[in-house]
Amino acid sequence: MIIMSVESSCDETAVAITRDGREVLADEIYSQIDIHTLYGGVVPELASRCHISVISRLAESALKAAEISRSDIDAVAVTCAPGLIGAVLVGVNFAKSAALALGVPLIPVHHIRGHIAANYIAHPELEPPFTALVISGGNTLIAEVKDYTELHILGSTRDDAAGECFDKTARVLGLGYPGGSKIDALAKGGDALKYHLPVAKLDNPYDMSFSGLKTAMINLVHNAEQVGAELDKPSLAASLCKAISDSIVPRAVEAAKSLGHTKLAVAGGVAANSFIRGELERAAAEAGLKLYLAPLKLCGDNGAMIGCQGYYEYLAGKRAGTDLNAWATMPADSLLF
Questions:
Q1: What architecture is the 2-116+300-315 domain classified under in CATH?
Q2: In the chain, which stretches have pLDDT less than 70?
Q3: Three-state DSSP class for 290?
Q4: Helix axes 233-259, 162-172, angle to 10 degrees
Q5: DSSP 3-state of 87
Q6: Which of 88, 14, 123, 35 is nearest to 328 (CA)?
């Protein structure tokens, strides 16, 4: 089964062609980093306009790269939630039009489920059940993956996502956007134990909070500026990576152990952070867990992950009509569609 998949939830426009869920024939991505770098972060209106200007061209490019024709497409999958509402709407409307014109089914896909599915592409042997940790710019959560389309959220951030903490810290340090990769690079020359940063403890052992950490970082930098004190920026970046890792890694490992799972899958843009990847590998080995990490090229937003998850949603009978809407927020375990 060949699926054309569309992803436009934030600042990457992506169209992919996949076969039977796990084989990627083409994955075309247009990044808007250069546009949003000028403003220090994603500007929703600009993101939406950029999606509009490139999405049709990307679809044609994907067909060419996959060496197939439009008549070979069996279904169209699209991210319909969550994300910047204007951006998501661009992808949804394009996908609806494409499915209608081609006379094929339209498959709605949740963005977070797509991130988890990136591991199915990278690791063909991975099958549910397992525990999943998703860490990205807008979402941070731990889920029990019971089946390909059945999830149960064990815990999530109650405020900011881990990725937002990276981005805001990078901005206050003058590193620019996107912050995650810049913090990661800077941290490699630092001492992760030099700065003691807060790690939130909540009543739900699997819930997380990063707003206090973000505020602590901002205050630390501002206070140093006010008194003319010099900051050890590499060590501060390394300490931030450690604080975020200390918030998510033990929780994810404990969740897998409590469920009796032997597999832990990790996905999302923040999963590309080298410090966190290293801590996950260490902790999983100590706990006797098989760790599945999405490769760097599949950690960020891409169309292939949506096509993969779309395949399993299709097998589960999920379909949408031309009345499909977009949602800015929606739990990953929602039964809305």
A1: 2-Layer Sandwich (3.30)
A2: 335-337
A3: strand
A4: 180
A5: helix
A6: 88
Residue type, 220: L
From 313, 311, 322, 302, select the one nearest 28 (Cα to Cα): 302
Q: C-alpha dihedral over 153, 158, 162, 167, to 10 degrees?
A: 140
Residue spans of the domains in the chain: they are 2-116+300-315, 128-298
Between strands 130-135 and 263-267, the pairing is: parallel
Q: Directed axis angle between helix 211-227 and helix 162-172, to 10°?
A: 10
User: Minimal CA–CA distance to 307: which of 132, 65, 95?
Assistant: 95
Q: Using alpha carbons, list the distances in angstroms from residue 129 to 91, 147, 292.
A: 30, 6, 13
pTM assigned to the model: 0.94
CA dist 319 and 337 (Å) reads 8
Long-range contacts of 221-227 (CB under 8 A, 24+ apart): 221/169, 221/172, 221/173, 222/172
Tell me the C-alpha distance between 38 and 40, whole Å: 6
**Cα 329 from Cα 82, distance rounded (Å):** 5
Q: How far apart are CA 39 and CA 224, in angstroms?
A: 24
Q: Could you please report the per-residue DSSP string of 132-143?
A: EEEE-SS-EEEE
Close Cβ partners of 17 (under 8 Å, ≥ 6 residues apart): 2, 3, 4, 5, 24, 25, 26, 27, 62, 63, 65, 66, 68, 73, 307
Distance CA 130, CA 120 (A): 12
Q: In what order do the strands lie in the sheet with 150-156?
A: 150-156, 140-147, 130-135, 263-267, 290-293
Determine contact, residues 141/248, Cβ cutoff 8 Å.
Answer: no
pLDDT at 138: 86
Fold of the 128-298 domain: Nucleotidyltransferase; domain 5 (3.30.420)
75-81 β-sheet, strand order: 23-31, 12-19, 2-7, 75-81, 106-110
Q: Report the Cα 80 to chain-centroid distance in Å.
A: 14
CA 265, CA 144: separation in Å to the nearest integer?
10
Q: Establish whether domains 2-116+300-315 and 128-298 are of one fold.
A: yes
